[in-house]
Amino acid sequence: MSKNNALKGIGLFLLLTLMVLLAACGAAQAPMAPEKSAVDSQAGFSAAPPAESAGQISAYDQSAAIAQAAERIVIKDGNLDLVVADPAASMERISALAEELGGFVVKANLYQERLQSGADVPRATITIRVLAEHMDEAMQRIRKESDRLPLSETVNSQDVTSDYTDLQSRLRNLERTEAQLQEIMASATKTEDVLSVYNQLVSVREQIEVIKGQIKYYEESAALSAITVNLIANEAVKPLTIGGWQPGGVIKQAIQALINAVKYIVNAAIWVILFVLPVLLLIFAIFILPIWLLVRFLRRRRKNRPKPPVPAEPSPPVS
C-alpha cells in the first residue's frame, strides 16, 4: 500500500512539473481569443477572431493571424519647447486643456531661472496625458500659446502589438494552469501533496499578476498619450541689442569658429598620432633601418681591414 502511495506521489509531482513548464512556454502555445477589457473599449482595441482547431493550423500561424487581425497598439508621446509671454499662465491653460480633452496633469513645475544679466524670469515644465485620439488636437492648441515656432518639437511612436499579443497568450496559458492546479489540490489527500500544489499555485499566481500589470501598462499607455511642454519666457531668449547691433550673435559666431578650429586641430593630431607616426615607423623599420645598419657594418669592416705595408724607398748611393 505504501508503495502505491509513493508511486502516486511521484506521478503527481511529475504532473505538476510538466504543467508549470507548459505555462512558462505560454508564448509557444495555441492562443485563444482574448477578451476585451474596459481600457480596450476606450482605446478601440479589437479582439482577434477565434483560432481554428489545432489540426487545421499551427500555434505559430494562430499567433500570426491574431497579430494581423488585431488593431495596432501604438504608444505615442510628444515633447514641445515653447517661448511664451507668461509661463505660469500658459501652464494653467494647458492644465485646463488636459481636463477638457479627457486627460489629466501628470506633473507641473514652475520655477525661476536666472539669466546672465542677473534678472530672474519664470520657467515652467508640465506633463499631461490626453486620450490618444486627441493628441494631435492637443499639440496644435498648445502651439498657439506662443507666437513663435517651437524651439523643439518631437513625437515618438512605439508599436507594441507583438508584445501585447504575446502577453495575452502567456496569460491565458497561466490561467489554465492555475485552474488545473486548483482542481488537483482539491482532490489531493496527503499533506505533502497539498503543500507541493500550493507552492506551484503561488508561483503561477505571481507570474499572472506580473503579466497583468504589463498588459495594463500597454493598454493605458496606448489609450492616453503623454505630452511634455517646456515653457520658456520671452526674456530668456531675447538677444542683446545695442543700437541695432547684436553682439550676442557675433559672440556665438566667434565661439563656433573657435570650436571648429580646435576640432580640426584635435582631428589632425589624432591622425598624426594614430596613423602618420605608425606608418613612418613601419617604413623606417622595413626600409631605412636595414640600409643604415648595412652601411654602418660596411664602414666598420673597411675601417678594421689591415692596410698593406708601404715599400721602403731606396737610399741614395754614397759618392
What is the secondary structure topology, with strand pairs?
Blueprint: H1 2-24, H2 38-43, H3 59-69, E1 74-84, H4 87-100, E2 104-114, E3 120-131, H5 135-143, E4 152-159, H6 161-187, H7 191-223, E5 224-233, H8 247-304
Parallel strand pairs: 1-5
Antiparallel strand pairs: 1-4, 2-3, 3-5
Compact overview of the structure:
The chain is an alpha+beta fold and 319 residues long. Helices cover 57% and strands 16% of the residues. The protein has eight helices and five strands, in the order H-H-H-E-H-E-E-H-E-H-H-E-H.
Describe the structure.
- This protein has helices spanning 2-24, 38-43, 59-69, 87-100, 135-143, 161-187, 191-223, 247-304; strands at 74-84, 104-114, 120-131, 152-159, 224-233.
- The protein is an alpha+beta fold.
- Strands 2-3-5-1-4 form a five-stranded mixed β-sheet.
- A hairpin with a 5-residue loop joins strand 2 (104-114) and strand 3.
Structural class: alpha+beta
User: What is the element string, with H for helices and E for strands?
Assistant: HHHEHEEHEHHEH
Number of helices, where a helix is a run of at least 4 consecutive DSSP H or I residues? 8
Note the main sheet: 5 strands, mixed
Number of strands: 5
Q: Ends: how far apart?
A: 152 Å
| Mean pLDDT over all positions | 77
Catalogue the unreliable spans. 27-69
Search tags:
319 residues, flat, alpha+beta, 57% helix, 5-stranded mixed β-sheet, 8 helices, Alpha-Beta Plaits
